[in-house]
Design brief:
Blueprint: H1 3-7, E1 12-15, H2 24-38, E2 43-49, E3 53-57, E4 60-66, E5 72-75, E6 78-80, H3 88-98, E7 102-105, H4 110-122, E8 126-129, H5 134-145, H6 151-172, E9 178-181, H7 184-194, E10 197-200, E11 222-227, H8 238-248, E12 254-259, H9 265-271, E13 275-279, H10 283-291, E14 295-298, H11 307-314, E15 318-322, E16 338-340, H12 343-354, H13 357-372, H14 376-404
Length: 410
């Protein structure tokens, strides 16, 4: 392969495990496909859906594959189909027709397994991107499940499971030649664990959709917001403790604005004193909800990126996030938001902002300015650099193998 070929736009077959679902990973995958289409880059997307069909929009081809009745849920709409491999011949036909230079998978699931298998079978360079901390999700759920056990035993069980799942995931990511991760901590972990080239793949934000201009309230109430799934792995029960802490400090001019649905909804609604639960929102309603917040509380410790914190910042809302997981990389502490080590920190930082309107105003502007500097365009251009790197590595290995067998290059 000459230099011109390497610098040309790669033909990519994309196997996202989450594409039509409502979550951050699916949103990022859809935006990546949209980016390719907007640039007229050839892009084939293979994903699971409720029916099997093929459609083409510009330079992008979309092949959805129906999951069987034996599928079981992994998380909300996301599922795993043990019979999904029955689609392999159909996908192979698509791959042979499309002739990709690179195959891109996103995780350990039924869709990506087909992509990884075909990359191996056809000797096509493979790129893998990490979108979800499945090991931490599993640990949180196990911890929630075994609440009846003594805390030290529950922690040992969930900790053991978390490490084993992480070990398995890292082993799976040894198959790609290049790996992408949403924060530097995961880039380092995957790079070291897989001994592969590892690159950062963050997430951008739409500064028009998420903007202070969508604000519709103008009273003296300070709104503390949360957006996301109301599930154990998001640590949402900590919102109750934060509210109790604020009340203990004498704060009264507040209201919680909680956007999302999930199994913890009823538990929260029964125990929180001043909270509005909107359920799932999207479009203009979501933009308005963000903009009506003043402080964004995100106690999740399992998010690989935490795009909701970035959307909140773009909306002119000051995020307070955990010091565990990916969201902390989005925050400049005490400038664009706060990084909390424990629930006391969440309470103290929120109380400080509530009692200091001038500081809250400065930080709201700083949060907005910081978020606006992150564009989807630059992030996806970086993904294409990773595609080219995987091709370069594959070509270099081919040349090394030929030279090792006698030095012939024909």
């Amino acid at each position: 392969m000459d230099l011109d070929q390497l610098q040309s736009v790669p033909r990519v077959a994309f196997f996202p495990d989450s594409f039509v679902e409502i979550n951050g990973a699916a949103m990022t995958c859809r935006r990546l496909a949209d980016f390719a289409r907007s640039r007229n880059y050839p892009y084939l997307v293979i994903y699971a859906c409720r029916k099997t069909e093929r459609k083409q929009e510009g330079s992008a081809i979309y092949q959805s594959l129906k999951r069987s009745s034996l599928s079981f849920p992994l998380d909300e709409e996301l599922a795993y189909d043990p019979l999904f491999q029955r689609h392999t011949k159909r996908v192979l036909k698509q791959i042979l027709e499309f002739k990709p230079d690179v195959i891109h998978i996103t995780g350990v699931n039924d869709v990506s397994i087909i992509g990884a298998y075909l990359a191996w079978k056809l000797q096509i360079p493979l790129v893998g991107s990490w979108h979800t901390n499945v090991h931490e999700f599993a640990a949180q759920r196990l911890s929630n499940l075994f609440r009846f056990l003594p805390e030290n035993i529950s922690k040992k069980v969930s900790g053991f499971a978390e490490q084993k799942i992480l070990d398995g995931a890292v082993l799976y990511y040894k198959m790609p030649k290049v790996v992408l991760a949403p924060n530097q901590e995961l880039v380092d972990l995957l790079g070291k664990g897989t001994e592969r080239s590892a690159f950062l793949m963050g997430r951008g934000v739409d500064p028009e959709k998420f903007s202070p201009t969508h604000r519709t309230v103008s009273d003296d109430t300070i709104r503390l917001g949360f957006v996301g799934r109301l599930r154990a792995e998001k640590n949402v029960r900590k919102l109750i403790e934060i509210e109790d802490g604020l009340i203990a400090e004498g704060v009264s001019n507040y209201e919680f604005l909680i956007v999302g649905e999930g199994s913890e909804h009823e538990y929260l609604e029964r125990r929180m004193k001043k909270a509005v639960f909107t359920g799932f929102l999207e479009g203009e309603e979501l933009s308005e909800a963000y903009a009506n917040m003043d402080i964004f509380l995100f106690p999740s410790e399992t998010d690989a990126f935490g795009n909701v914190a970035q959307e909140a910042a773009a909306s002119g809302v000051v995020p307070i996030v955990s010091d565990k997981g990916g969201p902390k990389y989005l925050i400049e502490h005490d400038v664009t938001g706060f990084i909390a080590k424990n629930i006391s920190d969440f309470t103290d930082y929120a109380s400080m902002l509530i009692n200091d309107p001038a500081r809250l105003g400065r930080m709201r502007k700083a949060a907005r300015d910081s978020a606006m500097s992150r564009s989807w365009e630059s992030i996806f251009e970086g993904v294409y650099d990773a595609y080219r790197e995987s091709i370069r590595i594959a070509e270099a290995r081919k040349i090394a193998a030929i030279n090792g067998n006698g030095g012939h290059s024909n």
